[in-house]
What we know:
Elements: E1 10-14, H1 15-18, E2 33-39, E3 46-52, H2 56-69, E4 78-80, H3 82-88, H4 95-109, E5 112-119, E6 122-128, E7 133-136, E8 143-146, E9 160-164, H5 165-170, H6 175-185, E10 189-190, E11 193-194, H7 195-201, H8 209-229, E12 234-239, E13 242-247, E14 260-261
Amino acid sequence: xxxxxxxxxxxxxxxxxxxxxxxxxxxxxxxxxxxxxxxxxxxxxxxxxxxxxxxxxxxxxxxxxxxxxxxxxxxxxxxxxxxxxxxxxxxxxxxxxxxxxxxxxxxxxxxxxxxxxxxxxxxxxxxxxxxxxxxxxxxxxxxxxxxxxxxxxxxxxxxxxxxxxxxxxxxxxxxxxxxxxxxxxxxxxxxxxxxxxxxxxxxxxxxxxxxxxxxxxxxxxxxxxxxxxxxxxxxxxxxxxxxxxxxxxxxxxxxxxxxxxxxxxxxxxxxxxxx
Length: 275
C-alpha cells in the first residue's frame, strides 16, 4: 500500500530519486542513451540505469502520475487523461504539450533500473522501470498506467519525501534550482556540501567547474526567492567551495526526527562526464 495520501499541494517522491542524478540537470538537445550506467547517488544507494537520460520535466510527470495513483493500491491500474496530467503539472492543454507529455511517458516506461538501498535495516533491490505498464486507448485517448507494487519499500517512512509542488512549479524552467529544492527537501539540517559534490550528484553537463559554481549560486538564489514568495524560508550561500543551506521545515514533514545530512560518498562511477 501507499502511505497515507499526501496533500494536494505536495508530491510524494522516493528519496533515492531526489538524492541522485537519476533526474538530472542538462541542456536541451539530443538526449544521450545510457546502457547499464551507474548513476551518481549518495550513501548506500546504487542505481544502474538503462534508457534515455531523464530531466526535471520527466520528474514532474512521474511525480504527477504517482500523485494520481496515490489513492489506490500500488499495482492497480490508474486511469487519467492528458488534460488531467497537464493540469497537474501546470501546463496548458495544447497539441505541443500533449506530444511532449506522451514522449515523457514513453521515456519513463522505457527505463530499466537496478536500484538498491537499505530500507528499514534490510537491503532492497528493485529491478524494473519507473512505470510498470502504460497503455493509451485509441478511441478515448485516456492513459492507463501501473506503478509496480515492488516500489512499496521506497515509500516507507523516512525513505520518501513530500515535495512542495507550489515552490517546485514556481521554479519551472530552472532545472538546477528544482534539483536543489528536491535534494534539500529530503534533509532536515543539511551540512555544507562542496560544489564538486553537487556537480556530480545533480548530473550537470556543465564541464567548467567555475561556470557551474556561478550557476549553482544563481540557482540557490532562485530557490530562495521562490520559497519566500510562498511562505517558506531558505538561506543558501557559497562560502569558498561549500554551499551552506538552511531551510524551514516542510509543511508536510515526513523525515525521521533528528535526521541530519552529511556529505556521504558518491556511488562511483558517477554519471559524468556526458557527451
